[in-house]
Design a protein that fits this description.
two-stranded antiparallel sheet
Amino acid sequence: MSEFNLSSLSVMMPEIFLAIAAMVLLVAGVLRGNQSTRFICNAAMVALVVALLIMLGCEPSGDIVLNGMFTHDPFTFFMKFLIIIGLIVTLALSVQSLYQDAIIKFEYPILVLFAGIGMLIMVSANDMMSLYVGLELQSLSLYVLASIRRTHLRSAESGMKYFILGAISSGMLLFGISLVYGFTGSTNFDVIASTLAGEVSLGGVIGFVFILAALAFKISAVPFHMWTPDVYEGAPTPVTAFFALVPKIAAMALIIRLLFIPFFAISEQWFQMVWFLSFASMAVGAFAGLRQHNIKRLLAYSSIGNIGYALIGIVAGNEMGLSAILVYLTLYMVMTAGVFGIVLCMRRDGAAVESISDLAGLSRNSPWLAYALALLMFSMSGIPPLAGFFGKFMVFQAAVHSGLYILAVVGVLTSVVAAYYYLRIIKTMFFDEPADKFEGNIEFGRKLVITLSVAFIVLFILNPSPLVEMAQSAVHSLF
């Protein structure tokens, strides 16, 4: 276990820099008020770019610092890269919406930064204490973001639901950590791993079950998904985009680290639980989405189904499965960013519209948005040669390779079912009678995100190797 010294903080420089930047921007916001919202949003994006550059300059050596609490290996490097990119995209999509939806609050970008810091700490955690600190920093920021439009009934309701259920999951997490500590004598991941490898205690397994249940809530895996549709629908759309883009990637990275480092010795026990989470999430995400008419609720069930596909890679339990997860999460984030960029453009008469029927005739009113959304929907359906096909193919290939034939078959069948509600959106845009036009003023940042997202999913087939190789290298460090 490493000793604390100032040189060991070099691997934490992105988190330290973002924390300082967030506090400086908070002071600036207090002094200048809500009129500084746009400036603080832009400054937060600059801070994230700088943090990304700092991280790229720190070689992922695998050092464990702060007395064993913090690690920086290729796996954390890969996941942190995705998280920071997701935070930048979130703010780029949000700037215009903050003014359109009268959420002109300078606290918004600062809360995004603090949530991002919590996610980065979660991903690098090598101890239950640092895990909990990072998770709570993220969660507290997300509770406020969900209800940031305080005068709006649905936003306040979604924030309250998320807070109550999130508090329950935090309590379950703490109870599980206390049991694991009681039966292993440590909160350090490496010590827990060596203890469980020597003797598996029933109390330690029960503690792990509570921890896994709490984290399943964070990724909205069935049956811990009940908050997702309501929060996605009720929260302001830029906040919903943030929820869909980034927190689940951080929580999935944390689950992978927990399962394959401290709790790898009890893989026989958690295999069954993760198998069920994957099976149930794919089924509920596919069939419940068929009845949705609100596009944000539809995307909520889509995210639940996509988490189910990603969990297949964990059940596979090998490098092939985990590298498939990293590729899948990367492609999912890119596709989701593009979809929410278009959803944020759904505005008429100064107000946001969210019904799928509001997309009627979009191909005639705004061909660029219609064809972009069609390509994204085809990709999310898993139709070749778009990027979404390769993500699902890698996951199902890992399942077959590990003998998980039932999950592979269920995954394919639920993909076919889910394709119905993706294709229904395309049918509405191209074949229904045109509705009124959307407002045409689209900010540059939003256009850029949509364009890059579509270009990525279309051109990914030309050279998928770099992403696959980076994912394999990242996963290899865990083993």
